[in-house]
Amino acid sequence: MGSATTQATAAVTTALAAVTSIDIDTARELFAASRAVGDSSQLSGALADSSAPDQARADVVTAIFGGSFQPATVSLLSTIVAQRWSSADDLVDAIEELAIRAAAIAEPDADVEGDLFGFSRLVADNPELELALGSRLGDESAKGALVISLLQGRASESAILIASSLVQQQRERRARQLVIRAMDLVADQRGRTVATVVSATVLSQAQLQRLAGVLSARYGTTVSLNTVVDPTVVGGLRVQIADDVIDASVSARLADLRQRLAG
């Protein structure tokens, strides 16, 4: 990510925080805008062209989206195109990120991160599903409909919107990776960090609370836990937070011992 995009993303996130009327329709419209801009190299190039006057780019947004989108959505899109982006792809990614953050805001009491994590595990455990969602030959709207059918009644409206939207605009990215990134963005929007905890057996609520407390103290932020039971770890835990991996599993210690003996 270029420095221009980093600064622009921060400015757009700040603009989102200032809007008081964010609802699920705002998120839905932002996802639609991301698809529309991403599907047209001519449009994305024009909106990311920093040599064009800000007002000219804002006028394009109004002309295309003003008749069907809420004023709050059009205003956010105008703020996005007013920034300087390192590439047209970065502009499209920014609209998508804003849509994810808006969905997190729309349902503040829903466990959106947990729902997205559950969907990521469903995809990971079903190779045929992952293949169907990742196929370049599949109809994009059919992929979205499939995700909705799988999650309806089992996940929050925001999680369903995020997952079904992302599989329709993968742009050479894997569906599971997109959902995990979305989970992290939702957590960040809510001021916390997500940790994935892998254990050989189901952890008790008391154990989870203690672990969350330890990790929160270590990282200086609220840490929410997503758990995976994997008997191959034998015992102990493996914890991943972003790029950090804390592997205190028995299987890791055995592997290390075998390596030392072989060396």
Describe this structure in words.
This protein is 63% helix and 10% strand. The chain folds into three domains: 3-106; 112-188; 191-262. The protein has helices at residues 3-18, 24-38, 41-47, 54-65, 71-81, 88-106, 112-125, 127-134, 140-151, 157-166, 175-189, 205-219, 250-262, and strands at residues 192-199, 222-229, 237-241, 244-247. α2 (24-38) runs antiparallel to α6, α4 runs antiparallel to α5 and α7 (112-125) runs antiparallel to α11 (175-189). A four-stranded mixed beta sheet has the order 2-1-3-4, with helices on both faces. The relative contact order is 0.10. The model has no long low-confidence stretch (mean pLDDT 91).
Provide the fold topology.
Elements: H1 3-18, H2 24-38, H3 41-47, H4 54-65, H5 71-81, H6 88-106, H7 112-125, H8 127-134, H9 140-151, H10 157-166, H11 175-189, E1 192-199, H12 205-219, E2 222-229, E3 237-241, E4 244-247, H13 250-262
Parallel strand pairs: 1-2
Antiparallel strand pairs: 1-3, 3-4
